[in-house]
Protein 1
Amino acid sequence: MPYNKNMKPNRKRLFISKKTGTSERLKLIKLALENECNTLVFSLDDVFFKNKNQKFVKLIKSYPVNIEAGGHNLALLMPRNLFLFNRDLFRMEQGKRKQKHHFCPTNPKTIEIITNRAQNIFNHVIQGVTAPRIIHLLPEKGYESIWCQCPACRAFRPAEQYLIVVNAVADVLSRFDPNARIMYIDFDTEPEAARIKPRKNTIVSA
């Protein structure tokens, strides 16, 4: 059945930090599942998607649980080592390009890199995500409104710049699974004035 954009799955989520050790992670997952958590969310670059630990698999199979991917992973889309020779890809602040916290979404080269990175990431994680598939694409925590101030980007509010990126990644995801959805944060205080409209395969995080 096609995913209804206006109906969010009834999922109680536990976001698993990729920094959590194996033994601690197993205890945390077991406790969450025993307390009616029905969805585990692993980071897009979590080892879970690269080399599934049999202990995790066995534990997860013991419960009716959904697997989702993502979190505050937006930085993964832009390799920071590109900053030295490609500063125009990164956000501008007070006339200077900054390596940290997001990037310049109005640069066509930025979008090209982001979509290629998303393609590569989805190649690794998509089969590990249960249907209906949800990918969380959230901005860096605490820096949601820290975006680019270059002349081109100044035409867009931070929330709109973020949505430009969300839409680009949503287009990539649709090629893997037309029923999959990108979950994003709507932190705009004036949504009725937004000029960037979210793709149909996106949903707003609760």
Note: The beta strands are 13-16, 39-42, 66-71, 92-93, 96-97, 134-137, 181-184, 202-204.
Protein 2
Amino acid sequence: MTGLLGVLLFLLPLTSPFGEATATASSVDNGLRLEVSVEVAGSPVAVVVRGLAAGNVELEPVALADRGNGMWQGIVELPRIENIRLGFESIPTRGPATLSELHTLIELGVDSAIFSIEREPVRFGEDSDPLANPQGQRWGWLGLAAGAGALMLIAVWSIDSWKSKPDEEADEAEQSVTADEAENHIVD
């Protein structure tokens, strides 16, 4: 599903030399694609956006393009849909680089609804599966035991009825023989 999903909610002002920063989600196919922009005072040689994912895992830095008038923009692609934290680094011609504070994507303007959408299908045995929790497992075992008991009753019933059929046929044959003998005695 491509298209503009993120909504620019507000502009976030950062500390000097950084001005307003924004992030907009443009696609959620195979991860998250962000359009990031920041205003930078002065004339830096380069501006880099740095990201931190869950567990303070640092993401690859992405260089932003100079759009003129102190505006720097670029595209950041994430392999997963996650509300990471972004910071900016201004690299001047001389002296040390300046880092901005970190802000979440929601603080930068990405719509929070994007992060609440469940994307992966639920598979058997995961926590959301009712048979994976202890109560569900108990019901599963109870159902299995009930099914086995029902099969045993059917087996006993069919064996019992099979055994009783030859006896009934023998009784009927014996009764027919005695009826024939009775007729023969009457005739004599």
Note: Residues 30 and 97 are 33 Å apart (CA to CA).
Protein 3
Amino acid sequence: MALAIRLLGALKAAALFAVRRPKDAAVILLAALLALTFWRFNRERGRAQELAAKIEGLPPDTKQVVTIYRDRVVTKVRDGPTKIEYRDRYLPPEGHVEIVTKVDQPNKPPEVVIKDWGFTTRLGGGIVYSGKPLPLIDLKWAYWRRYSLTLGLTPRFGGVGVSRHVDDFTPFRNLEVLGMGGVGWAGKPRFGLGLRTNF
């Protein structure tokens, strides 16, 4: 309820600003629209490049092609004289790709191994809202695709967090939404929601 009241207060302040200073509000709105248009353009261009990687056929003498584009791994494998199989998988920033060729199987295409889960030690930080905005420093210690587990500290509490990369629907590739729970320095349970990034 308190969050809804604060949100209404922020909307009211924004409306008053637009009424009192319409030129400044128009410039801010125009800048926001330009940023949104640029983001949409980049996103669509990235999708077009991804589709181009998928649509391109394989040369007749090629069994397999692996294309890594930003956070996607596109694999094209020839399955018969005319059939081509496509695989598209997400590659988290903590992950990596290995191409494994077996000596005793020369006729098989190399195996593409995508490491999209495991343990890591990535230092990060951000901001968490728990009654008020708090700075956060944390350590990511496990990941699975877009999801991660972190250990974090704020000025009011420390605890364990669960985060998710939001690069599939925002322009920010290193941004994560975080939910964090723990114990405050006074011994009371605390919970916070916020954003984090890897350093």
Note: The radius of gyration is 23 Å.
